[in-house]
Amino acid sequence: MIVFKTFLKVLKSCKTPIIMYTVFLVVFGGLNMQTSDTATSFESTKPDILIINNDEDKGITKNLIDYIKDNSNIIDIKDTEEAINDALFYRDVNYIIYIPDNYREDFLNNKNPKIEIKSTGDYNASLAHMMLEKYVKVANTYNAKLDNEEEIISNINKTLSVKTEIELTSNLDTNNLARATFYYNFMNYSLLAGLVYVICLILSSFNEIKVKKRTIISSMKTSTHNKNLLLSNGLFAIILWIFYVVLGFILLGDIMFTTHGIIYIINSFIFMICSLTIAFLIATLVNNKNAINGIVNVVALGTSFLCGAFVPMEWLPSSVINIAHVLPSYWYIKTNELLKTIEVFNFETLKPIFINMIVILLFTILFIVITNIVSKKKRKIN
After folding, report:
1. How confident is the model at residue 215 (pLDDT cuts 50, 70, 90)?
2. What is the pLDDT of residue 3?
3. Among 355, 308, 339, 326, which Cα is nearest to 189's?
4. Contact (CB, 8 A) for 190 and 332
5. CA-to-CA distance for 73 and 126, rounded, in angstroms?
6. Are strands 116-119 and 95-99 parallel, antiparallel or unpaired?
7. Is the pTM of this model over 0.90?
8. CA 84 remoteness from chain centre
9. CB-based contact 55:113 (threshold 8 Å)
10. CB atoms < 10 A from the CB of 83, how many?
11. CB atoms < 10 A from the CB of 58, how many?
12. Within 10 A of 334 (CB to CB), how many other CB atoms are there?
């Protein structure tokens, strides 16, 4: 009881950083909490296209232009190279099509006239390019078989008029899952920073010479003292984890009552245990209170940046991801990222998640073993 009371006294001095890490989680997690409707339908987008026609506006040339107009937003821009390049640079237009002089005649004579293009290289530009390629391929096919221009145009229009019905069959709540993933990914930082800071500070306080001497001459056994200290730190870790999970229910809502939500919680619990062992290892290695802030920044911030807590994994370079494999945070965040893509839960879909959790538990065992080795060596030295 004495150990626990002392623990609480030291813990009170740590309330400021705990509140700060919690605020970070709520504020930065909240930035991604903007609600939006779950997508249940598909609507194709139209790219912004500029057509510069150097040929006569008739026949196959006119048909090409009409097809582009029907499937895109035609943009009017001053016909100067400077104005065109500026429009492309500022994304006023996604795609520019240059129809060459005498295109119609060259096409009908099977000369394969080349259509020059300029592109922003983004999604809409790619869509416009596919549209143009589709028309040209269909037109070339009929031009090789037919001699009459009107018949060629008629067959082109008939083929291109066939539309594909698109129906979304997935019931995956992608918006809310993305929000939950972001929140639990950011928890990597708040949970790890909070536990490392508080536990290192508490253990360093108990390891001060004066406190150690009082502990030694007291009637309390060393094993009892260490057991109470371990239980106190474990209780703090669980309370902090529960607090963050409850915040998750408040911020994320119904998604946390689903199977996805349960696995997010289980995954974060396993990572909490691992974070606890990381904190004990660091506290065993370092007794300097002044160094704790720097250690928190290196451990919590460093792993969060490397493993995708702040920046999505798909945006990180492959070299960074390869390095991140040696950190437990990577496996924790990887599970969160997998969860937002799973629609049906079965052994096959859950297998990689189980593997990630097992890896985190192996890291936990490794940290416990290292902590015990370091602790024994320090006792021999002392």
Report:
1. low
2. 47
3. 308
4. no
5. 15
6. antiparallel
7. no
8. 36
9. no
10. 13
11. 10
12. 22
* pLDDT tens-place string over residues 24-83: 666 766 555 554 444 444 456 789 999 999 999 999 999 999 999 999 999 988 878 888
> One-letter amino acid identity for 293?
N
* Dihedral angle over CA of 303, 305, 307, 313, nearest 10: 180
Helix (H) or strand (E) holding 149: helix 149-160
CA distance 179 to 166: 26
From residue 226, give the alpha-carbon distance in Å to each of 3, 156, 212, 250, 350.
9, 82, 12, 36, 38
Q: Which residues have C-beta within 8 Å of that of residue 249, sequence separation ≥ 6?
A: 256
Q: Please give the C-alpha separations between residue 328 and each of 194, 272, 361, 363, in angstroms, as whole numbers.
A: 16, 11, 9, 7
Which tokens in the block code for residue 65? 């232009």
Q: What number is the average pLDDT over the span 349-375?
A: 92
- Alpha-carbon distance of 115 to 108, in angstroms, equals 15
